[in-house]
Design a protein that fits this description.
The chain contains no helices and seven strands.
């Protein structure tokens, strides 16, 4: 089983001059196949990560797309060893 690290680097909405909680929907792809949809809510200017698992080809490219009512910045990366469950694909 392969693992993906989803990192939310920034998530917030402006209300006047204040940053407030917002929501985002992240869609994670391996190659052209959608492997996960994550609903994310809250507010952060510090990176927050989550690990996801899939059973598709390990060497396929990963990417994330998102919709957000506010400001969001996200990234995904394939990982060889998942730190949450210590799963090693090799």
């Amino acid at each position: 089983m392969a693992s993906i690290k989803l990192t939310v680097r920034r998530l917030y909405k402006l209300s006047g001059e204040r940053m407030v909680n917002t929501q985002a929907t992240a869609r994670i792809f391996v190659g052209n196949r959608l492997v996960a949809t994550e609903e994310i809510s809250g507010m952060t200017e510090s990176p927050v990560s989550k690990f996801l698992h899939h059973d598709l080809a390990e060497n396929a490219p990963v990417r994330v797309e998102w919709d957000c009512d506010g400001v969001a910045d996200m990234a995904v990366a394939a990982v060889e060893v998942c730190p949450c469950c210590q799963h090693d694909e090799h």
